[in-house]
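Known limitations

Structure tokens in this collection are predictions and should be treated as such. Users comparing against experimental data should check residue numbering before alignment. To illustrate the layout, the record for Hypoxia up-regulated protein 1 is reproduced below. The input appears on top and the generated tokens appear beneath it.
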Amino acid sequence: MAAMGRTQRRAGWALMALLLADLLALSDMLAVMSVDLGSESMKVAIVKPGVPMEIVLNKESRRKTPVTVTLKENERFFGDSAASMAIKNPKATLRYFQQLLGKKEDNPHVALYRELFPEHELGFDPQRQTVRFQISPQLQFSPEEVLGMVLNYSRSLAEDFAEQPIKDAVVTVPAFFNQAERRAVLQAARMAGLKVLQLINDNTATALSYGVFRRKDINTTAQNIMFYDMGSGSTVCTIVTYQTVKTKEAGMQPQLQIQGVGFDRTLGGLEMELRLREHLAGLFNEQRKGQSVKDVRENPRAMAKLLREANRVKTVLSANADHMAQIEGLMDDVDFKAKVTRAEFEELCADLFERVPGPVQQALQSAKMNLDEIEQVILVGGATRVPKVQEVLLKAVGKEELGKNINADEAAAMGAVYQAAALSKAFKVKPFIVRDAVIYPILVEFTREVDEEAGVRSLKHNKRVLFSRMGPYPQRKVITFNRYSHDFNFHINYGDLGFLGPEDLRVFGSQNLTTVKLKGVGESFRKYPNHESKGIKAHFNLDESGVLSLDRVESVFETLVEDSTEEESTLTKLGNTISSLFGGGTTADSKENGTSTIQEEEESLAEGSKDEPGEQAERREEGEPPVEDTSLPPPPEPKGSVASEGEKATDKENGDKSEAQKPSDKGEARSEGVPPAPGEEKKQQPSRKQRMVEEVGVELVVLDLPDLSEDELARSAQKLQDLTARDLEKQEREQAANSLEAFIFETQDKLYQSEYQEVSTEQQREEISGRLSAASTWLEDEGFGATTVMLKEKLAELRKLCHGLFFRVEERKKWPERLSALDNLLNHSSMFLKGARLIPEMDQIFTEVEMTTLERVINETWAWKNATLAEQAKLPTTEKPVLLSKDIEAKMMALDREVQYLLNKAKFAKPRPKPKDKNETRAEPPLNASASDQGERVIHPPGQTEDAQPISEPETETRGSEPADTGPLELEGSGAESEQKQQPTGQRPALKNDEL
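Generated tokens:
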């Protein structure tokens, strides 16, 4: 039994060790990241255990990384390296490619990109009607693939900073991105192997960052804050309401709600730089007027230099009235130098500054607010640093000042990484409810047959709003189609986009999203001919990323069945209850038929405000139920109690299920699988409702922009993996070549140093020098085509050749320090032993065996040292030494172990009792004292307390013997020395040789 118990304990410890190893491995995957994907640059942030929200530094130790990629035949460059390559190779350097995401070839933004960057050749993808970058006949990349490269690079930066792998991320996108653009970003992330927890709007991420760091200032009183974000490529104005609301799970919690959004897709710092670049190009042409030279605008390298200089001049003019633009060797080795004033810059961008108030007015209109309700206007984005932008905006909002109390560059990245930590299961953060808003309304369109007065049947087109403009999301909706008994189609399109201008509508692209073709509706009706149809239910989901999906379509039927609850036993009822809790409740018949008996929700009434004029009256006349929306309505404006956003997202479909389980006012029975209340078990219920659900086949025809197929995604992902592997191989080869070259030069230099010449012969040095010269020649002649393995093998050969020489030098360097330490230890040990032997016999705490053992170790160490030094002196310096530093360290450890043993014993030894005084009196014990109480009672001398009990004479024990009545010595850890616990009076534990 004891052996079995030990076996079980060992198995338990092994299992615990395995679980601990799994937990430690899992802890290496806990970090999450965010990517604030801007038009010109990106910011990456991480959060991991022990490291709160932190901006990642790139390889150049900068907090901001250019969104630039240089693609060449055999190598890639990212970030600052790619930005510098834009001057040397502008055709292969891709920038500002995000505006091509989700766009077809005929989109105005594609034409604008060709105009701004004529050096890029945009090919045509006939399958998706999109464009792709034609770097060379062999190199072609879609915008999604280029973005996937950038996301993969951002992850590598985050992993290097976090020192652990990262796979989960939250990525920011502009609030005005439509469905096609959002899906394109998600596809790019899939190509990079990055799991996107959420696509968060950059304005929402900024608002979240602002609220998280000011949660103490948020209360039940609503605060309306306007964020004006002008970046490099676009401008977005957002109105956000902050206040605390009551949630079911966590009580009062802060919440931000997006109330209004306005935007301008092309108003930003890039447009200002392009205007300034055009101005500088004109000045350069004027300076060379009369010379037979071509226009500078026809030279891509010169235009790339001018764009970089325009960016610098724009930044300087934000703080200075004028500045000198100068470029060395702009074109044909001709330098350029010209003075630019702030007034000239503002005149060049006058029409752009007139567009600054536009997003403000759009945001106010969508929020149905006025400027008096806005408490503060906060600037976000780098382009808001332009003085004229601030001047025009301040006049437009009518405030005394503009808020600058937020990091304009990093706020979105910090808000996004906070959301990433909240969505990750590895972190627990303080709740902060985020209620984003739908920018573009989405509706469902379908046709149905109606009876005219003359008895003629005709088709009528119907529209139902699925997600309204500025409605909250994430959100689920269920639309019920009645009076359909055969297969039919319906369409998912954008709603009223009248708030967009004509140019924005052209850039927006297709307003038709998807055509849904249902198959199997008629078959479901034939399968249940005696059941009452409850309609065809389509379940929609607008997720946290703002991406719409059709989860499923079901054909629902209902019928009355006989109740057999009285015949069921109590165990059967209990079994049904338990099975229903775990998703049971399916009958045998339903399983055979491939359907399930479910507890469907009671369907809510249609939203009358979403019907076309006269639609409800017409349906009432025809007796047709409306198209139903079973989603929960958005919570009211919180005055003290508001449901959280998470509840809205999860309870859309299940919120009414509890209502279906309640008995109706008309005495309807419960659904199958739900037992009656205790008080109702005795009542006989003749029938109950049973709801049957049949899955309907769905075929989706995407109309806005076809998504990449799974095969195409896999090919693109493999293409990016191959490029990454090639880059890693290139880096490894370069590192191997650099290591080989450095070893050759360093070793050749060492051969002329005196310390290396002393331990080597002339012949040895000549052999090494000759091999090094041959390797250097090989590296120059054939090293360019050598593989990484060949370079590493060559380096290993040279290191093996020089190992003996380097070993002798290193050993001679270590001798003085090691020998000095050994001498000091021997001297101190000898003095300690001498002092121990001088202790009187009455006070001696060490046994003779212990002191003899220490003396033997000291003598052996002295003898080994003297003998080894004598033998080493006879050897020539060019041979392998017999005096090794590792042997010296081993001798020191053995001697130190013996000394430490005795020191620890002396540290915890108790003093012997003093001899008793002859005049000491003894108190008589009481008559009723027990035998154990009749001990000696000592009258202590002055200054000694009663607690200082006399200690009995310890038994003399030899080292290594087992004490008779002493328990085992307790150690804090394996092989570790620990303090001995206080033993009872009269007992002293003996230390064994293996208990050190």
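For this record: Residues 788-837 form the longest helix (50 residues). The chain has five domains: 32-267+356-436, 269-354, 438-702, 715-810, 813-908. Please report discrepancies through the issue tracker.
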